[in-house]
Design goal:
Belongs to the SEC15 family. This protein is mostly helical. The protein has a two-stranded antiparallel sheet with strand order 1-2. α6 packs antiparallel against α7, α10 runs antiparallel to α11 and α23 runs antiparallel to α24.
């Protein structure tokens, strides 16, 4: 075993002392051997412990631990701690001897295999030497052939390097050329004013070329020039945009006038259509129902007509967006437009507002039409809140200007002109979504001022029409004049067309006043139309009552109360009032038509004007004034105390002379009244005159100026009274009043004076105290009046000779009866 081991070791050392490659091969062989031994040892699952003679139990335990690879450190530490290391050393030596024995057994087992491996290694060494020799020969040959190739390879590599440099140079040159070409294009665009293309070109240079330009000088030059060009473009664009701002401001007036003109044309077409509708409704007697017309005005029509160029704005905004400063441009636009608006809202006090209001309002309309187009077409350029703020500023200023100017105006025409244009402005801007309520509210606040001015203007016209009236019946010679003065105001008394020449029962004042009232209604409707309240008929009705009551009625009453008025004037005024009262229905229907209200809704009795009642009262006042004039004239004719001899001794043979004048006057009055006045008025005039005569006679008997009267005077009054009674009966029947007033004849209003004359002429006047007789014959007489009058009745002649002639004559029965009546009346009183 020992000799074998020695051989193996010596043999191994021999090969190791050879060259490096042999050392490598020996190492490989030893490694193979070690691998074989390791494989064999690992193949055993667990070492078998052989107990030899002389082994102790401790040796077996130690051998088992070492064989299992366990840590023997604790045993060693324990042996030294116990102070007995010698037994442990002895045991370790025993274990070592046992391991050596195992190694020798292993070597004996693998000896033959190891010899075979060594032989194989020797063969490998020989092959390696041959291979080395072949490699050296091939290397020499390769060196000979490769030297020339290496020279050519170096040349080729040099060519490749040159080619690469040239290619790189060409590429760099192309980049520079492309960048320079873009720079040239950019300069050309800038010079031509195509700033959008110039900015897009610069953006292309910055994104695609600026970072890859190989020439540093060129790169720096372009980097320095780009901000300069952008600044130049921005200034140029702002300059162009400023010019556009000035242009659009100067164009705003034309834009506003055109837009307002379109609305005015549409309004005119609508009014014409409504007028045709009203005429159709008036002529529609077949029950076809109400006609309806509508007018559609499309916004597209305005957009097609209102052409103004916003391209400079779009371009400027787009360019500023590309420059990355859109907010700055928005602020610039908003601030400049705000300044323009402030300037537009300033009015010139050097020119009357009535001459400048259209320019002022059209400028504002054009301004906000432009803003609406901008906000609708420029995307998010302009915010709705900004436009709303500008509109609130404008509308506040407009309202203030209108209120100040309306307060200064003294002409309803001027105020109406401004109002109409303001409503057109409101209608125009409402189509663009602007809230115009405050402007319309300002107009509504000024409606009282307008109507005050209109009333004052109409008052002057009415005063002129009434003061210049001839108070003569109007003579109409043509059918056209009849239509214009009678039919147009529904003043006809018959539906049949009269024969011409036609004498109207009213004077020229009536149609003149009707025309004034109609123009007032038209003016009022013009102002109230297109305002805050779409249903303004009730407001118009209030103003219509106001002019009829506060103006027309007051002027008529002033004329009536004028002391210089005559009978003809009073009679004509009363007749005129009755026709004006009738015209109130026409005024109301006309107002309803202008307001678009169905005529049938105002034809109800409860829907009539309050002025109609007031005019009726004024008509009664006119009748009263007429009666006053007539009665005054009758008093002038009669003058009973002066015209009658109250103590005459002669028996009268007929009426007094003054009675002829009274009858002639009454004939004239009644004839004229029959032609002019309506039946009820004619009756009132006749009754009033007759009643006044009756009262005058009774009053004369009661007058202090009559101290006494006799039977002859009573007989004379009786003759006069019969004339009046005959006249009363004749006129009562000839005028046809007997068919209307069957229970109230003219004679019935003479009953008091007739009963008085009958009492004074009676042979038994004391029968007055008989209740039955008094109720039948003297029911209208008052005790006190009868007592007073009877005290004045003296039947004896008033003269010395008469008294002496009759001193022996007995008192007649009549005198006794009268004395008895006087006595009993005194007792009764």
């Amino acid at each position: 075993m020992t000799s074998s081991s020695s051989f193996s070791t010596a043999d191994t050392k021999l090969y190791l002392s050879a060259g490096d490659h042999r050392r490598l091969i020996s190492t490989v062989g030893f490694s193979s051997l070690s691998s074989s031994s390791s494989s064999f040892m690992e193949a055993k699952p667990k070492r078998r412990i052989v107990t030899e003679n002389g082994d102790t139990g401790e040796d077996l335990v130690l051998a088992t631990l070492i064989g299992n690879g366990d840590d023997v450190g604790p045993l060693v530490r324990h042996a030294f701690e116990m102070g007995r290391p010698e037994p442990l050393v002895h045991q370790l030596k025993n274990v070592a001897r046992k391991k050596e024995a195992e190694i020798e057994d292993l070597c004996k087992t693998h000896y033959e295999e190891f010899i075979v491996a060594v032989d194989e290694l020797r063969g490998v060494l020989v092959d390696a030497e041959e291979l080395k020799s072949d490699l050296a020969t091939d290397n020499f040959r390769l060196q000979e052939v490769g030297s020339a190739l290496l020279v050519k390879l170096e040349e080729l590599l040099e060519s490749y390097a040159v080619k690469k440099n040239v290619t790189e140079a060409i590429k760099m040159s192309k980049i520079c050329v492309q960048a320079l070409e873009l720079c040239v294009k950019c300069n050309s665009y800038v010079s031509e004013g195509q700033f959008y293309h110039a900015l897009k070109t610069m953006d292309l240079i910055e994104r695609n070329y600026l970072k890859i330009i190989p020439l540093k000088v060129l790169k720096l030059a372009i980097e320095r020039r780009i901000p300069v060009i952008k600044s130049h473009i921005e200034k140029k664009v702002c300059s162009q945009f400023t010019e556009w701002l000035a242009h659009i401001r100067s164009s705003s007036k034309s834009i506003g006038q055109t837009a307002i003109g379109l609305i005015a044309s549409a309004r005119q077409r609508e009014e014409e259509m409504l007028e045709r509708q009203r005429k159709a409704e008036e002529q529609n007697t077949g029950g076809l129902g109400e006609l309806a017309y509508t007018l559609d005005v499309e916004d597209s029509e305005q957009d097609s007509v209102l052409k103004f160029d916003l391209t400079p704005l779009y371009r400027a905004y787009h360019i500023h967006t590309i420059l990355g400063v859109p907010e700055r441009f928005r602020d610039y636009y908003y601030s400049n437009r705000q300044l323009q608006l402030d300037s537009d809202l300033e009015i010139s006090y050097g020119q009357p507002f009535v001459e400048s209001y259209q320019t002022f309002l059209a400028q504002i309309a054009g301004y906000f039409i432009v803003e609406d187009r901008v906000i609708r077409t420029a995307g998010d350029f302009l915010l709705a809140d900004q436009v709303e703020t500008m509109w609130e500023t404008a509308i506040a200023k407009i309202v203030l200007v209108l209120e100040n100017q309306f307060a200064r105006m003294d002409s309803p025409t001027h105020l109406l002109l401004v109002k109409d244009y303001v409503t057109l402005l409101g209608a125009t801007l409402r189509q663009y979504g602007y809230e115009v309520g405050p402007v319309l509210d300002a107009l509504d606040k000024s409606r009282d001022k307008y109507h005050e001015l209109l009333l004052e203007e109409c008052r002057k016209q009415i005063v002129t029409a009434i003061s210049e009236d001839s108070y003569q019946q109007m003579v109409i010679r043509k059918e056209a004049d009849y239509e214009n003065n009678v039919l147009s105001f529904n003043l006809q008394t018959s539906e049949i067309m009269p024969a011409f020449t036609y004498i109207a029962p009213f004077s020229s004042m009536v149609p003149d006043v009707c025309r004034i009232i109609r123009s007032y209604i038209k003016g009022s409707v013009d102002y109230l139309s297109y305002g805050v309240n779409t249903n303004f008929f009730s407001v118009l009705r209030k103003y219509l009552d106001k002019i009829l009551i506060d103006v027309l009625n007051e002027v008529i009453l002033e004329t009536i109360n004028n002391n210089s008025i005559g009978v003809a004037q009073a009679m004509q005024i009363a007749a005129n009032i009755s026709f004006l009262e009738k015209a109130c229905d026409y005024f109301l229907r006309h107002a309803a038509q202008l307001c678009g209200i169905p005529s049938r809704s105002v034809e109800k009795p409860q829907a009539s004007l309050a002025a109609k009642v007031v005019l009726k009262t004024s008509r009664d006042e006119a009748y009263h004034a007429l009666l006053n004039v007539v009665n005054t004239k009758l008093d002038e004719f009669m003058k009973l105390p002066e015209n009658i001899n109250w103590i005459t001794e002669e028996m009268p043979q007929g009426p007094h002379e003054y009675m002829n004048e009274v009858v002639i006057y009454l004939e004239t009055v009644m004839s004229t009244a029959q032609q002019i006045l309506p039946t009820d008025a004619l009756y009132k005039v006749g009754v009033g005159a007759i009643e006044h005569i009756s009262n005058s006679i009774v009053s004369t008997f009661l007058s202090d100026s009559i101290k006494r009267f006799n039977a002859n005077a009573v007989s004379a009054i009786n003759h006069d009274l019969r004339v009046i009674e005959n006249f009363a009966d004749e006129r009562y029947h000839s005028t046809g009043l007997d068919e209307v007033y069957k229970e109230g004849s003219f004679r019935s209003y003479l009953v008091e004076v007739r009963q008085l004359i009958n009492l004074l002429s009676s042979s038994q006047p004391e029968n007055f105290m008989n209740p039955v007789i008094r109720e039948r014959n003297y029911n209208t007489l008052d005790y006190k009046k009868v007592a007073t009058i009877c005290d004045k009745f003296k039947d004896s002649p008033d003269g010395i000779f008469g008294s002496l002639a009759n001193r022996n004559t007995k008192l007649t029965a009549k005198k006794k009866s009268m004395d008895m009546l006087k006595k009993r009346l005194k007792e009764f009183n």
